[in-house]
Amino acid sequence: MIRRKVIRISTLIKVAAPSVGEDEIVAVADVLRSGRYVQGPRVKEFEQEFAAYIGTEHAIATNSGTAALHIAQAAMGIGPGDEVIVPALTFFSTVTSVIHNNAIPVFADIDSQIYCLDPEDVKKRITKRTRAVIPVHLYGHPAEMDRIMEIAHAHDLSVIEDAAQAHGAEYRGRKVGSIGEAGCWSFYATKNITTGEGGMITTDDSSVAEKARKIRNHGMSSRDDHEVLGYNYRMNEIAAAIGLVQLSKIDKLNEIRTRNSKYLLKELESVDWLEPAQQKPYVKHAFFWCPVRICEERLGMKTKDLVVTLREKGVEVRHRYVAPLYKQPMLLKQKAHPKKCPFSCPFYGKEIDYSNFDCPNTERIAGKIIGLPNHPGLKEKELDKVILTLKSVR
Ligand SMILES: *Cc1c(COP(=O)(O)O)cnc(C)c1O
Hints:
394 residues
């Protein structure tokens, strides 16, 4: 049993792999020799280069994407009693970052074509407590930002873009992460570019940037003055050194991801149980994933069984997110801070029951999307194996 697995893994086509080479290794060795490890010149340079790439005034490096989301909201003063609208389909830390700030996540449905927040459903979820909305550029496709910004402005809401899956993606010619009040990024190992672990906030708002820098570093304004509640969310020099090299390759890496994804989608066009995700004509997709939706009736198989079958045939695929996030036990049981904060916070003055949420598009789509191997390290014959394997399933 165990032996069989080992053999399979050695021939498995991985769905994701960091694209790191000799340049990154040399950059890391330089840091280790320098003796300066935390938030030094390389972090500063990485922030400047990243801001220039995205097109914002400021960039604030952090040690994860989740930290970036946490700090961005804290810097905007989001806290007890506030509601923040999030999509029902995303990585869970979009949601937990709201709770880390003692605020309440409120779910809105996704659009059934691009899987990102449906702006009209966002509008329906706005109450007098709503302070912000977090559109996620899911799988690399930009959310419908014009309409989201329009609704947000009309209701005086902040917009925090969760761009953790969309490095380099563009919406109507603008880089995502530069459209809302802040953009939050992750450089986790398998993202479009990586620093191992890491994150970034991009913003044009000098006040948000200044507060975020303080919160990131123990709330310090100077060596011995802690002005506000802060955290240690700093990026280290090793991560920044890797990030600088990765950033210099980002367009090339994204180009290969895009080419791989388009090749797969074109060759799989004839497979009637696969429905490729739509791409709006006015966006540049970052293809963090190459997402396809499974028509289980036509295939005659559940998506989770398909995932196992493909793996047995040597093709690893992604299969996330399998259910609307309001079904997560943490939310249903309200297991956050002690004494049921923030859900029973007196500043909130309302009750929230996550079992009452219903987002029909998310209910229908969650669990039926898989991501095909599309990372820049794949060879053409591996892509061809992915295609043949998928075609041979039924
Ligand atoms: C990866 C990711 C995050 C979290 O980033 P970490 O660096 O892993 O903390 C947040 N939101 C989305 C949509 C992500 O994909």
